[in-house]
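Dear support,

I submitted the protein below through the web form. The confirmation email said the job was done, but the results page showed an empty box. After a refresh the structure appeared. I'm attaching both so you can tell me whether what I see now is the final result or a partial one.
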Amino acid sequence: MDVLAIGAPAEEATLAALLRCCVREVAGPRGLVWPAPPYVLLRVAGTLLRARTHGGAALRLDGPPERLEGGSWQPLTVAELVRLAETDLAGRPDEHARQGRGAGAAHLVVEPNGEFAGQVTASMDAVAAILAARARAEPPADPWLASEQALVYGHPFHPTPKARDGADWLRYAPEAHAAFPLRLLAVRDDALAEEGDLTALDALGPAPAGHRLLPAHPWQLDLLRPAFGPELVDLGPGPLAVPTSSVRTVYVPDAEVCLKFSLDVRITNCVRKNAWYELAGAVELTSRLAPLIAEVAARHPAVRWLPEPGYRTARGQREGLGVIVRASPWTACDPGVTPVLAAALALDAAPADPLAWWTAYVSAVALPVVDLYFSHGVVLEPHLQNVLVGLDAAGRPVQAIFRDLEGVKLVAGRHDLGGLHPAVAGALTHDPARGWARVVYCLFVNHLTEIAATLAGPDDELLRALWRAARDLLARQAAELGQPLPLRDLLAGAPLPAKANLRVRWARAADRSAGYVPIANPLA
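What the results page shows now:
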């Protein structure tokens, strides 16, 4: 893990993340990155920068980045790198708009961004506040929840990984070990909108006659300030909830269920609200995926998933108060298996035999994702925060639990969606190229690259051995699947698509508009 992250000041962690973005999205696409072991050199806005790194594409930093000035290397600060990035991004709008496009991505019109520096500073200040709050708080005893709350520094390739709106966000922050009571509302039957199995919601408490229980996130209620009356009644505090890594999804220990709420708050790139078509889509996907995952599990017995069997909301606040029920990971794991967030393993994984551990990890996590795409036209979104890894008593990865159906898509032409509302069907669909790019980015760039870097540390030979083992597993799977061309290209060394988080934030665009930039493929 970065010496600039674990236990380091917020400025150093922010500098490391922004520098990685500049390598990947600013200097890299122009050929302005050069390996000069033990350094990586790059040029941003005409200034030469360098940093000691390891971990391949993960760009783990081994010391403070520097800039060349007057013939000598000087320490680089966040403010200086922000100015350089702003100059570079603002100076070539046409090039950045063109390069920002990726498979299925919208064209980004890039204009000067007067908000960018303030957002970087706000994210850095949030990290400092989180560090201070964690020093005063007790982590959860549940090892899964402790892993959910471990992501102090956020996405390693995002310029503002902890950007959050609102004054009260720390009260609800998983990284600060927050826990809080839900608010329980009652919705009159004729003002209700719901679908699917909602047994878990009805078990949270009693509702007045003619009403149904609707839990609400207290932060969202403060933001919405809905009108209470006969149709919507405030019943007061409910059971304790513990936020997971996504902030808006919580676990309710007393009910052993996860609940995904809407939050009208921008977290990193997006306002985290359940769109009405996403509510319906979660229930639809739960029904469609059950037989497909069961079929794949016959070949990959480690695969698990968390269904989202129902949603409930009030008609007058369909999106603002919508809540999706999600199964608990403890119900998905076999006895004796402990779920741990993959993103937490990317921070700290030190098995005695890293090559054997990695082989088991790739077999459990990667192979079913690839199988689902080619066998059934299902696009999972297996990034580090959407995958829980089941560890046995010895700490070996024996199961992979996939969650969050919002990012799951169906490949166009492979599924009959004729009976669905057009908006629901459209939100559930990707064309094949866009779907495969999403799988490759989430699985290989966001996920496996980070896990491999943590396992290998500064040992480059071990890192190469890990990727050789992954390639062998995928090559065998390619043969079993009939050598599909996209998988053959991947194994032949085609560049990997890396999501352009810096560019989409600079463009002030929706996250769904983010394109990709090519990076080197470690499977080559």
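Response: this is the final, complete result; the empty box was a page-load delay. Residues 131 and 348 are 18 Å apart (CA to CA).
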